[in-house]
Amino acid sequence: MTDPVKSPSVEEVLEDKGQYKYGFTTDIESDTLAKGLNEDVIRFISKKKNEPEFMLDFRLKAYRKWLTMEEPKWPNVHYPPIDFQDISYYSAPKPKKVLESIDEVDPELLRTFEKLGIPLDEQKKLANVAVDAVFDSVSVATTHKKKLMEVGIIFCPISEALVEYPELIEEYLGTVVPVGDNYYSALNSAVFTDGSFVYIPPDTISPMELSTYFRINTEETGQFERTLIICAENSYVSYLEGCTAPQFDTNQLHAAVVELVTMENAEIKYSTVQNWYSGDPETGKGGIYNFVTKRGKCLGDNSKISWTQVETGSAITWKYPSCILLGDNTQGEFYSVALTNGLMQADTGTKMIHIGKNTRSSIISKGISADRSSNSYRGQVKIGPNASNARNYTQCDSMLVGDKCSAHTFPYIETANSSVQLEHEASTSKISEDQLFYFESRGISRENAIQAVINGFCKEVFKQLPMEFAVEAQKLLALKLEDSVG
Amino acid sequence: MSLLEIKDLHAGFEGTEIVKGVSLTINAGEVHAVMGPNGSGKSTLSKVLAGHPSYEVTQGSIIYKGKDLLELDPEQRALAGIFMGFQYPVEIPGVNNAEFLRLAYNAQLVSKGEEELDPLDFDELLDEKMKLVGMDPKYKDRFLNDGFSGGEKKKNEILQMAVLNPSLAVLDETDSGLDIDALKVVSEGVNKWINKDNALILITHYQRLLNYIQPDFVHVFGQGKILKSGDKNLALELEKQGYDWVVTETAN
Ligand SMILES: Nc1ncnc2c1ncn2[C@@H]1O[C@H](COP(=O)(O)OP(=O)(O)O)[C@@H](O)[C@H]1O
Ligand SMILES: [Mg+2]
């Protein structure tokens, strides 16, 4: 059994190793590894989590690759260089005892989650959503596990899966996002501490939504979670991810990797509502650097992967949930709402890589920029030589709130097959003071007015989200824009 | 008590005074027509009444139902029963016309402490009002004013007025853009709405409208002021002679 709360404490591991005299801070609340990154830190994390040998090798290989790589400079975002030695790579809430049930989870965390519309505790937990809650570096609670097990669905922290189902992890981890794919995915592969693992067996429709909730809590911790979802033949799962972080003056790094794999006829629907702290809206101080690699591989014929994201937070977002359409007749979808306000910077979009025949993809991107923020859509559609009859539809709309913000679109198309059909539409609009006045002059509050305009703008994306999340996402956007208009 | 009492109102835009001392009293049950040359400040006066944030009141007062209107924000003014039919209604793509009307209608109910109307019940009410102003039901599913012709926009304003049933309506050149048939239907709708408890201010250039909706008072507006007031015969005179003679007369 490897419930992370039962793993050895930092001190225990230390004593064990005998060589880390320096650098571990432990306070009442959490077990935090001292700042800095080297091979020993990686060995520490791996040992702490009782990982199988192959995992340590995977990590070390990634780390060595990372050392040879450079931070990407092409995104349209600007920030001072990150000192990777000034980050702690492991932090866990320190349990006073083994948690018997979810009711013992930090009530603050439960409350925050509830605000997102997803209560965790046994009495209130949603009947149709199973939740894995990740706090800093570890998973603290997973609900509905037993019920899912009954139909053969595995839904657990990836740290647990590494011990319980190592062969599944070994087979698939790094097959969609290879160890050296990019700078941040390499870093993640070296130091990731937790995340969620999902396996849907053949011929199974998940009886409920699966969901992971991430929270960064410690000021100088990086969060590097890793998610792997495998959906076997003729199966379906809808997966939701929500994120928040408290307010700090310093920046926290969040460099996650998510890998999805669908077998023949399978479908994964992956939805994100991201609301990390975005820094001080006036000075830009603090906030999360959200550098995330998300990619799905439609391995089996007729399979489908659909990404829906509502990105409303983070100081900097750098994220391109993508689909590799390998099997014939496979489908990739990307629905995105990205809101930037204050001094936020977002460079987000998708890649649709068509390899199989008759592959289809569609991209609906809605960018909303307010205040002095910068919002870029970057999308690539790549059609391989064998992808005959491939089709892509891209729609890319920007909405500007005020006149100090900016919106950019960078569409890239690369095609090696002549039988393809590509469509691209783009628009830019503005939410104006006169529009809001029109609502108000009919007795409709400013808040409801903004919500109505934004909902209209984002309709196609919101309707992809499960009901509860759609309502939450709408409110979140309206709330964020309330002060930006006028 | 008068429904609306404007006293020596001065208002403008970014330091330029446009409304220069307007006084006007309106009682429940009255219809007032305001006529005057382009650029004289009629629309500005109406937007000041509605509380448009771009305009600043520098002097004077507006009392509505015994309360200081200038203390209320636009939303509160609307909920207090003031309706502005805009000369140039703004287009709002993405927002469904019927849904917008329901939001407005329900905002009113909520402010009165009443229960909101659900979409089905509201739909019934809306059908009835659309018939009243001669509007095709297909406009329910359009985006608010988005791509509407000038006349369609004006009809849509009247539809909103019919749904919201205000105490005081200001219709700013609602007749321009409407063809004769539409003007007739819309006027009939407005006439049905008029009763002894509400009041109407019609801003117009044309006598034509006043054949359908009979004003109790006609005011000639010029250079940011009411230059002359009279009964409906004044409108006929303006139709014949234009505005110039009023301007000259008042200058002397
Ligand atoms: N928002 C504005 N920006 C610039 N000028 C304005 C604005 N509103 C009104 N004005 C000016 O104020 C004057 C009166 O305009 P308006 O009230 O629309 O007149 P009317 O409705 O009588 O034709 C015009 O000279 C117009 O250009
Ligand atoms: Mg005008």
Map the helices and strands:
The complex is a heterodimer of chains A (about 475) and B (about 250).
Chain A (H helix, E strand, L loop, with lengths): L9 H8 L6 E3 L3 E4 L5 H10 L4 H15 L23 E3 L13 H9 L13 E7 L2 E5 L2 H6 L3 E4 H7 L1 H7 L10 H9 L4 E5 L8 E7 L10 E6 L4 E9 L6 E4 L2 E6 L4 E9 L11 E12 L5 E8 L4 E4 L2 E4 L5 E10 L4 E10 L5 E11 L3 E10 L7 E11 L4 E10 L5 E11 L1 H8 L5 H17 L4 H15 L5
Parallel strand pairs in A: 4-8, 7-9, 8-10, 9-12, 10-13, 11-14, 12-14, 13-15, 14-16, 14-17, 15-18, 16-19, 17-19, 18-20, 19-21, 20-22, 21-23, 22-24
Antiparallel strand pairs in A: 1-2, 2-3, 4-5, 6-7
Helix pairs in contact in A: 2-3, 3-8, 6-7, 10-11
Chain B lengths: L3 E10 L2 E11 L4 E5 L6 H9 L4 E10 L2 E2 L5 H6 L2 E4 L6 E5 H15 L7 H14 L10 E2 L5 H15 L3 E5 L7 H14 L5 E5 L3 H6 L4 E6 L2 E6 L1 H10 L2 H8 L1
Parallel strand pairs in B: 3-10, 3-11, 6-9, 9-10
Antiparallel strand pairs in B: 1-2, 1-4, 4-5, 7-8, 11-12
Helix pairs in contact in B: 3-4, 5-6
The complex binds adenosine-5'-diphosphate and magnesium ion.
The site of magnesium ion has 5 residues of chain B, from helix 1.
